[in-house]
Amino acid sequence: MTRHLLSLAGGCLAVLLAAGTAGLAQDAKGVTFAQSVEPQGLDPTVSSPVAAGQVTWQNVFEGLVAIDRDGQIVPQLATEWTVSDDGLTYGFTLREGVTFQNGVPFDSAVAKFAIDRILSEGSTNGQKANYTAIADVQAPDPQTLVLKLSGRNADLLYWLGYPAAVMVEPSSTDTNGTTPVGTGPFKVDEWRKGDRVIMSAWDGYWGDAPEVSGVTARFIGDAQAQAAALQSGQVDIVGDLSAPELFAQFTDDPGFTAVSGAGEMEVVAGMNNAHPPFDDLRVRQALMMAIDRPSLVEAVSAGQGTPIGTHFSPANPLYQDLTELFPYDPEKARALLAEAGHGDGFSFDFKVPNRDYAQRSAQIMQAFFAQIGVTANIQTSDFPAAWIQDVFKDTNYDMTIIGHAEPLDIGIYARDPYYFNYDNPAFRDQMDAIASATTDAERREGYRAAQEMLARDLPALFLFSYPKLGVWKAGLEGVWENGPVPANDMTDARWTK
Amino acid sequence: MIPTRLRRLAAALLMLLVTSLVIFLAIEAAPGDPAEIMLGTSAQADTLAALRSQLGLDRPLMVRYAAWLGGVVTGDLGQSYTYGVPVAGLIAERMLVTLPLTLMATVLAVVVSVPLGVMAAARPGRAGDGLASVFAQMGIAVPNFWIGLLLILGFALKLRWFPTGGFPGWGDAGIGAIRSLVLPAIALAIPQAAVLTRVTRAAVLDIASEDFVRTARAKGLSRRRALWRHVVPNALLPVVTMLGLQIPFLISGAVLVENVFNLPGIGTLAYQALSQRDLIVVQNVVLLFAVIVLVVNAGTDALYARLDPRLRGRA
Questions:
Q1: Range name among A435-444, B165-174, B238-247 with the lowest pLDDT average
Q2: B16 CB-contact burial (10 Å; exposed 0-12 / middle 13-18 / buried 19+)
Q3: How far is A141 from chain B (nearest CA, A)?
Q4: Is B50 within 8 Å of A390 when comparing Cβ atoms?
Q5: Which of these, A52, A439, A441, A486, is most buried using a 10 Å CB contact count?
C-alpha cells in the first residue's frame, strides 16, 4: 500500500511538471508591470489616489492637462489655455472628437461636472485641498471651459494635471472604482482582485494608438517576490523596486535595463516642534549636524538616493542643494546642545513606522545621536493605521520618520494643524507669496526662499530623497525613468526586440 | 442522541455570538481610522467626514455591531470599505484559492506522513525511522514561509517549473491555477506532514504493543498483515484528531504562505484588510475562520465516532 501511494503521488507530480513546462510563453506584444500596493478602487478621483493612479492614470484616465515624464505640464484634453492678467480666470480650449470608452462624448459640460465633483460637499477626493481656489466653473460653449478663482494659485495648473483631477463623465462615476471608463488609450477588461488588472488597447482612442496591445498591472507587495517575478519573466517592469539591495543584481544583467531615477519621495524625520526640547532651534540644528547623511544613504538604501537639506525633491528643476548649511559635525552639535542647556544630552521617544527604510534609518540615526549624548528610544509603529492615528493625528510623539511621496508638497509646513506642530507665520506668508506669483521668475524665487527658510529652521531633519529604482526587460523602451508623478504610464511603451 | 446534538449546536451558536462580539470590539479598539487611511494624509476634514458617513462609520458602536450581526444572519456581509464590492463575493473569490490550497496541502501532508510514520514505527531504530525523525524535526523547526522562499529559488527561478507567485485564475481547465498552487501547497504541507509523521509513528508503536495485536500474531498473522489489518486502522484515531487540531495552524500558515507566493487567497485578504483597516472585511474573515474551526472540530468528533465504535453514543 505504501508503494501504491508513493507511485500515485509520483504520477501526480509528473503530470503537473509536464503541465508546468508548457505554457510559459506569453503575449509578446503586451506589457506587464508590477507595483507594490493594490489600489482599493481604480478611480484616482476618489479615496486612495496614489495606487489607483499608478494603474489607471494616463493608461485609462486623462486630464485637461498632463504632467509628462520630465515633470512639465503639457496639453491633453485641453489643447490650449489662457490665464488672465490678474491670475483669477483660466480659459481652456477643449480637444474635439474625444469620447469616453462608453461612447459618451467629452465636452465642456462633462469637464465642468468632473471639476465640480472634486469640490462638491460629499466629495471623497483626497486631494480636494489643491483645488479649493476654484470658485466657479463655467461652460460657455461645448469646447470652452472657464475656471474662476477666488485667489491666485500658481500651482493650480500643475494639480489639474495630477491623477486626482482626471476627467470622468456622470453616468460612470459610480462604477469607475471597479470598471473604469476614461478617455485613455487602454480600457480595463478585468480586475482580479488581489492579483492583477488586465487592460487592452481601445480602438476608439482620439490620439495615436499605443504600440503595445495591452497592459497588465500585477500587485506584488514583497520586494523579493517582485525581483523573482522579473527574473522568471512573469513581469516586464517593476517601476519602483521597493528594496534597494535587490537593485544591484539587475544593473549588471544584460537582460534588463536598470535605472536609478529621481523620485518625489523625501525621507524626513519630523519632530514635534511644540514639545521641549524640540521647540528649541539650537536642539534641532544640533540633531541635524549629528547625522552624516551620505553614510546614512549608503547604509539605508545601498547608496541609492540623494542627501537633501530641505523639503524638496532633487527631481524638481526648482530644487536647491542646502545640505552644506548643517553638515555632519558632532563637535559643533555637542557645543550647540550645551548652549541650549542640554550639555548632558537628553532622551526622547522615536516612533518609527514598520517600513524598512524608516526602521533602518532610525537605527543608524540612533547611533549618530548617541555620539552627541542623545538617547533615542525607538518604538515601532504599525503603518499606516497606528502611525496615522498616533503620530499624524494625535501628534503624540517626539520624533518620527516618514517618506513624503507627494510632489511639490513643501506647503505642508504652512498647514495648521500638521503633525510637525510647526507654527511659523513667516513661512505661511512665503507660501502665499508663491501662490500669488504672476511670473515664472517670481514663482521660482518664492520656492527658493521657502526651501532656504526650512533648511535653516529645520522643523524636520531632512535626510534624503528616495530614488525611483526602475527595472525592466531589455528591448522594452518608453518607460518612465524618473517619477515626477507616481505612475506607470505605458502609453509610450514599445518592444524593440 | 438528538438532545446531545442540539445541546452542542446551541453551545456552538453561543460561542459564535461571543466570538463575533470579541472580534468586533478587538478590531474597533485597534488604532487607525479607515477613512484617514483611505484618503491619505492630505485629506481635508470635510472630505474625511463625507467618507465616514458614506461608510456608516459615524453611527454608534453598538448600532454598527447590530447592523453587522443582523447582516451576517441574513447572509449580507456588507460592502468592503476599500474595494467597494460586497464582502461575500470577495470572500467567495478568495476561497477559490485558499480552499484548494489547504486541501492540496492536507492531502499532501497525509499522503507523505502516514506511510512515513508507519514505516518508521514498523522498524523502530532502523534507517527509515532515523530518516522520518530527521524529517519530522526539520519540518517542525523550519517556518513554512522560509520553505516557500527556498522552493521559489529552486523550482521557480532556477528550474522554472512553476511560477514564482501570483494566480492566473481557474480558466484553461485549471492547469495554470494548479501549477501556481503546487509550491505553496508543499510549503504549507511540510510542517503539517512533520507533525503527522510523529503522531502516526507514536500511535502505531502504541497500538502495536497492545494485547490484541499479540493475539493476532499468535494466531499466525504475519507482521505485515497484523500491521496493516489491526494496527494502522486503530492508529488512525489520534492522526485524525491531530489533523483536526492542525486546521487553525493550516489557516494561519496560509496567511504567511499566500503572502510569500503572492496568492490572492483569504489569508492575503485578511492581512491586507487589516493593514488597510477595512474593518468589515476583517470582521467577516475572522468570523469565517472561527466557523471553520468549529465545523472542523465537530467533523472530527463525528469522524472519531465512526472510527471508534466505543465512542458512539457518548457525549
A1: B165-174
A2: middle
A3: 31
A4: no
A5: A52
- Domains and their CATH numbers in chain A: 2-239+479-495 (3.40.190.10), 262-467 (3.10.105.10)
Gyration radius of chain B's alpha carbons: 24
Q: Does the pLDDT of residue A7 top 60, yes or no? A: no
* Location of C-alpha cell 482582485: A193
A5 chain-B contacts, CB cut-off 8 A: 111, 115
For chain B, percent of residues with pLDDT exceeding 90: 20
Mean pLDDT, range A249-264, rounded to an integer? 91
- Residue A302 C-beta-side C-alpha neighbours within 13 Å: 13
**Which tens digits make up the pLDDT trace of B256-277?**
899 888 899 998 898 888 888 8
Please check the confidence at residue A385 and state whether its pLDDT lies above 50. Answer: yes
Contact A389 B36 (CB under 8 A): yes
Contacts of B3 (CB under 8 A, 6+ apart): none
Torsion of CA B303, B306, B309, B310, to 10 degrees: 20
Q: How many CA atoms lie within 13 A of A236 on its CB side?
A: 23
Which of A355, A388, A406 to probe by mutation at the B interface, max B CB count within 10 Å?
Answer: A388
Q: Where are the beta strands (DSSP E) in A206-255?
A: 214-219, 237-238
* Residue B301 in grid coordinates: 468528533
* CA separation, residue A383 to residues A222, A356, A377, A387, A403 (Å): 16, 11, 18, 5, 12
Asked if A74 is an interface residue toward chain B (Cβ–Cβ < 8 A), one would say no
Contacts with B, A 205-234, CB within 8 Å: 218-222, 224-225, 228-229, 231-232, 234
Cβ–Cβ gap A5/B111 under 8 Å = yes
Per-range mean pLDDT, top range of A11-20, A306-315, B168-177: A306-315
- The answer to whether the CB atoms of B32 and A386 lie below 8 A apart is yes
Cβ-based contacts under 8 A for chains A and B: 173
pTM reported for the whole predicted model: 0.81
Distance of CA A185 to the CA centre of its chain: 23
Across the interface, whether the CB atoms of A385 and B37 are under 8 A apart is answered: yes
Give the pLDDT of residue A104.
96
Element (H, E) at B130: helix B127-141
Q: How far A319 CA sits from the closest chain B CA (Å)?
A: 22
| Mean pLDDT score, A144-155 | 92
- Contact criterion met (CB < 8 Å) for B47 and A128: yes
Query: Searching chain A, which residue's CA lies closest to the CA of residue B36?
Result: A388
The whole-number pLDDT of residue A24 equals 37
A19–B contact, CB cutoff 8 A: yes
Considering only CB atoms, B115 lies closest to which of A5, A177, A385, namely: A5
What DSSP string runs through A114-149? HHHHHHSTT--BTTGGGGTTEEEEEEEETTEEEEEE
